[in-house]
Design brief:
A hairpin with a 2-residue loop joins strand 3 and strand 4 (48-53). The protein is an alpha+beta fold. Helices cover 34% and strands 33% of the residues. Helix 1 (23-34) packs antiparallel against helix 2.
Length: 79
């Protein structure tokens, strides 16, 4: 499976990932991210994830850890 970062800026990330085309995986990702303190908005549509977050609360290290957990949750690697 592959992914593509469509946008990455302070407080906003948009990523396209093949695993997110699955309704079950998209729902699991939406639920997981929606429960993360500091996440303001989560949308998943047709394989594209839009994440808006409070950059004062979530730094790059936090985002990396979240990405690793998502990888485990979906059973997909980012490569």
């Amino acid at each position: 499976m592959s992914y593509r970062v469509k946008e990455f800026g302070r407080g906003r990330i948009c990523v396209e990932h093949d695993a997110l085309r699955s309704r079950e995986k998209a729902a699991a990702v939406r639920a997981f991210l929606g429960a993360v303190d500091g996440v303001n908005r989560v949308e998943v549509d047709e394989g594209v994830l839009l994440l808006e977050y409070d950059a004062a609360r979530l730094g790059h290290g936090d985002l990396f850890q979240i990405a690793r957990r998502l990888e485990a949750l979906t059973g997909e690697s980012g490569a």
